[in-house]
Amino acid sequence: MAREVDVLSYLPPIFHEIKEMIEIAKVENPLLDALWQEIESALLDQFLLSATGRGIKRNEDMLRIVSMATESLETRRFRLLTRYNEQVPYTRPVLRNLLNTLLGENGYELTINTADKTLKIKIELTVKGMYEAVEQMIERITPQNMVITVELRYNQHSLLANYTHAQLATFTHEQLRNEVLT
């Protein structure tokens, strides 16, 4: 919501012709623009989904989360969302609801085996950068006696069958397995 401030427009028309008032307005306009931007950033930083880098950093500091310099703002925002959305105690509906919120309903495969006490989650390739955040969240909210496996869901033959050999020949085997194909 960019807003330009023009101090001169707030003054009576008689002042629009006075050189001193014009010069004062020219000096004050950039200061008021900067102040307006700071106010807008402060408002955006109140909510994680609209927070700027400064707001994300502030939330990370409060939760004692250390982020890497190479991480994108979206990955850092996702990590914060996982931390704020954690709910204990662990139940299947809570876990499914949490995963649906964070990854989307089709963004993962969840397998729970109560007899073997195992929990397996396969995450879509589209959220590969958020893998570690999901893994840490699952470890925090699930019971300690469960064996947890979090994996990436790689491209399957059924997806690759839609492409011709010539189209697939432009990719390496690793790219075919690990990259999101459009």
**Which descriptor suits the 3D outline?**
elongated
Low-confidence stretches: none
Instruction: Count every beta strand, where a strand is a DSSP E run of 2 or more residues.
Output: 3
Contiguous helical run count: 8
Question: Radius of gyration from the CA trace?
Answer: 25 Å
Beta-strand content estimate: 5-15%
Distance between the termini: 33 Å
Order of strands, main sheet, comes to 1-2-3
H-E string: HHHHEEHEHHH
Structural class estimated from helices and strands: mainly alpha
Q: Assign a percent range to the helix content.
A: 40-55%
The description of the largest β-sheet is: 3 strands, mixed
Q: Average the pLDDT over all residues and give the rounded result.
A: 84
Please explain how this structure is put together.
There is one protein chain. With 182 residues, the protein is mostly helical. It has helices spanning 19-44, 53-63, 73-85, 92-103, 131-141, 157-160, 165-168, 173-178; strands at residues 108-113, 118-124, 147-153. The chain has a 3-stranded mixed β-sheet, with helices on one face. α2 (53-63) crosses α3 (73-85). The longest helix is centred in the N-terminal third of the chain and has 26 residues, at 19-44. The two termini are 33 Å apart. 11% of the residues are buried. The model has no long low-confidence stretch (mean pLDDT 84).
Compose a concise summary of this entry:
About 50% of the residues lie in helices and about 10% in strands. It is built from 8 helices and 3 strands; from the N terminus they run H-H-H-H-E-E-H-E-H-H-H.
